[in-house]
Protein 1
Amino acid sequence: MKKEYDLKKMRKRNSKVLTKEEVNKTLISVRLNTNDLIDIKTEAERLGIPYQTLIGSILHRFINGELIDRKSVIGEVS
């Protein structure tokens, strides 16, 4: 650990700090395929958002029917 830190580079947070109750999120642990995680991180970087936020968004959109499973749609058409 350093004895002194340069705090001049720190940026002020633009938004209000939320408490755990306000966030309303649950911490989980999940194992992902390494290549999938690399692709997710690459896409998140391209979008300028944290990769965990992207994962949460993908899950939310799938659960709410905004994203579909291509395999299940292809299976229904055949």
Protein 2
Amino acid sequence: MIEALSQPDVQAFLKAHATDSPAKLALQRHLPGGVSAPLLASQLKARQKAKDKLPSWLGWDGIIFPHGVAMEQCSSETTASWKAGQYKGASFADLTGGAGVDAFFLSRSFARGVYAEADAERCDLARHNFGVLGAQHLQVVQSTAEAFLATNKDSFDLIYIDPDRRAAHKRAVGFSDSTPDVVQLMPELLKRANTVLIKASPMIDIRQGIRDLGAVRKVTVLAVNNECKEVLFECGAAAQPLQIEAVHLLQGKEHQFVFDPEEEATAEVTLAHVQAYLYDPNVAITKAGAFRTVASRYGLGKPHVNTHLYTSDTLVPDFPGRVFKVLDVLPFSSKGLKRLKLPFAKAHVMSKNFPLEAAELQKRLKLKEGEEGFVMGVTVGNGERVLVVAERVN
């Protein structure tokens, strides 16, 4: 496969047909280099996904992209680059190599690296791509994480593991249902590395993950463009106070919000009616669970203990999320709906601790989708359901 797809005429064909339909390509005949139509179509589909996920790799002649699940599961260039910027040292090992994206970007911060992967085809692909990318200091080893730890006795500054969450053809969320079992491996991992970094599902229960791993120093919720991409558990043998950080990467900028569980548990929050401004924290903060801390630090009130919006009479600058100016607040009732008059033709509907989902509420209000304004279904302090009409400030 690699030899066939690496041919210059095949690479040129893929670039020339970058926007073509892979499905239509799969039916064509007389393709370059004698490459089968299904193989060429699969590579084209992978390259199209790489346009957003791995844009810099598209600029290298000769890169062969993984297909199927490997491409779907691999880290994006954005998140892999961010991780590489947080860790550096003499050596690291990626024990679940996969598409090789994390290993390649981490290799920029380490003098020596090991990519370990059980699948032979993925190892061949990684070896080829690392050569094209000039990452000669990355060693490719075909091995499971368990076998690598049993046979290789080297120590590392960092061991990175991204457990397979699709074991037994099911999407797993917790560590116990993933492969390798990092909970079982943790004692050996801590002996072999100063830092162990575990990538988890964005859906993971963070508190349960901390309990399962037992040696967590830091949890990072990593979001890109207000979408949670990864939850990272940094573990180490040396005990340190647990920190939780919410990192949001948006349009080339990074916002970091760091807190600890004790601060969140003791932060004082004032319940308040919906005031002149509403604040919606970025998804990294809400996933990290900083519901009380963010209110306390920015001096904001909360409409309801379980409504994760915040409010103030005067505008609070530099809030880590969306800020709205409130135009009207109406009861969610027949009378309230009759009074609803919007100063814009289209609106984006939101649901916050509200009995109707956003799509259902939008249908009920007969609103066309648009970003001209916002209508929010919100539960306030006394359990009352209200509609908030607002416009975006930033």
Protein 3
Amino acid sequence: MLTKGDDFPLHQTPEPVAYAGTDRNFYDRYFFNGYAPDGSGFFAVALGIYPHLNVADAHFSCIRDGVQYNLHASRELNMERFDLTVGPITIEVIEPLNILKVTVRGEGLAAELTFTGRAFPIEEPRFTYRIGPRTFMDYTRLTQNGHYTGWIEVDGQRTDLAPGTCGTRDRSWGVRPVGASDAQPHGHGVVSSFFWQWTPVNLPTRSLFFHINADRHGAPWNTRAVIAPDGAGHDGFFETPAATMASSMQPGTRWPDGGTLTINAPEGPLTLAFEPLVRFQMRGLGYTSPKWGHGAYHGPLAVEREDLVLADLDPMAPTMDNLHVQIVSRITASTGEVGIGGFEQLVIGPYDPWGLKDYFDAG
């Protein structure tokens, strides 16, 4: 089947662009988040396409006065991967790798948000992870900090973004578990676990990025830190795997309770202290959502609003849909720089360094 993408030099295989290899779990996703310099006004957006599942879905979230407002949408893809509208949510690529716009109109929620990058996006190391014999993840991701302009409206109350509103966007593509779960067991004695921390930081004149995936024993299988000065091109970054995050969990949860990141930078060790300000539940973008998980089929078009009172959520709910969070944090660097950033964390199953032996052990 020919689509709009076939008129651009984007092909990676002899097939038309509509076909993405043979793995049914192939996906291609956009992610955005943003917040004011004091951590207020949080919002986030995600849009994913799943060529082999014939599904596209999108989500918008914002936090106001302790309530997380979420808009979910899903439609049949119809094999057209260049159509970046899912119901009431649209993404427009204005200048590739630099300027993108998000438009939202539906269910009492509306927004116009324009993102402009601070530097060229970083390319993270390829994520390839197996549980027992099975490939669980195999994907590439680009990440970029930037500034936002625009506005958000909740039930008729419109608010312009505060001056200096910043945040992070990423693009990832490859293989992850999407759509209906695979019922086939991994094999006798295989216990799945997952440990993830991600901390994109906006400082006054530069961005810092750190992530770690580790196994249940604490051994990293994918980790790196990057320092990106404003305006840097693709070869203007400092990159190193020599970075560590010392952090703890909020009591009774698997949510981060701040932490200290240490990066072995060229001028010597650079430390950044994270002070938690605002909690965002990633289920609002479909991550670990029991109903709106990525790639789930909802028919030709489905749209739903979901409001969450953050103080009422059970951090260790049996469905595990509240484990995955981003904590907007104030950042204080050993250089005297003060900034704002995110601390994303997802810990599923055992994790020996923190004494987690089962799926429902908490900090």
Protein 4
Amino acid sequence: MDIVFSSTTKLASAIRDGKISALEAIDAHLAQVDRHNEAVNAVVTLDREGARQRAAKADQARTRGDALGPLHGVPFTLKDMHETAGMKTTVGFPPFADYVARQDSPVVARLKAAGGVLVGKTNVATMLGDWQSNNPLFGRTGNPWDLQRTAGGSSGGAAAALTTGMTPFEVGTDMQDSIRLPSAFCGVYGLKPTEHRVSLAGAFPDPGGASRSVRLMSCLGPLARSVEDLALIYGLIAGPDGSDTDLAPVPVEDMPELDLKNLRIAFAPSFPGFPVAGEISAAVESLAKELQSAGAIVEEAKLPKLDLHDDLEQGGALIGMMLEAAQPEPPEKPTPVSRWFEALARRDRSILAWDRFFEDCDALLCPVAIVTAFPHCEPGTPIEVDGKKQSYWMLPAYGAVFNYSGHPALSLPCGQDSNGLPIGLQLVGKRWSEARLLGIARAIEPLTGGFRRPPGY
């Protein structure tokens, strides 16, 4: 078997059945890191010996007949923002260069409890604050399809490691398209769950027990090379954990088998006033036609009557207020508390408008980002979209709309553009309906071709 490009599900099955050992799986992935990471710069911290020791223990457990869980012996990496006991968590920020957490975050603990073997950490934007993964500690991550282009951010190292076979799955964070945009740029799958579905405890370095600053719009979610793997990892990390009190006690359901003939899909090649490359909007329309031919009920979306540009501005303002409140010293002119409540009320109206929209369809198909992977540049540099300069800050617009509303959304690979770069499309569903959204994505997967291995890997 091709160990480094096997799905997580198949890899776990092969280890469980004794077809390969956990140590063989680890060594194959470490060899892939050795071959390709110098050029791609996706993996920034590596615990080579520790991972091999844990894999050997997993093999010994299997020999005794002990099952360690659905990820028994499966290697994995994590975005460099999860708190991990004994392994640095830096978020690409020099003051955290040597920070090591006292304990694993709940998400990390769950993956390890399922038998997974943590191998290392992947690159990010500094403090997760950009859509390119570049920072003063580790430099920039290249896109495996074209190293002169970005892998996206802030989960760019995660997406690039996954695309090149350095890891079988990842878990990223997404406050403004930070899982879905890099997934689209690199040609993998990425899920942003419903807000308050996966624990944010330990999701950012927390030296000295500082107050948790991020309480809204940010989500943890899996990146993978198949929908089946997304569902597996999502099922392991979702749900209340005894640490994050914001988590809703909504049942985490299994992904259902769905027939396209029973689905209602709305599609939007673009949103009003949002730029998008013609090849991306054409891919939306083309997939919509294929879905209709396959028997789904498909119609162009009648989007909620919202000012989506204002939603983006309001989302940015909320992020700013959260970060302001987390500062050790208040600013000279702090934002009035009344502004916070006004902002939340404004957000409620948008959430409810999207809730009503999804009463009439099972999912919305639309772009993930305004372009495919673009050349490395200074943040803020205008981005060329079909020959026209567009604002850099509009890069995540299509995804950030659903951070603001809290609805689950995933990026799925859907072919390539004329430059040979992956096109990713976005599928959005009802709040708390991740299992159904994943089922819809799996029903669509045969029409899109799924993950494609980039040349040279």
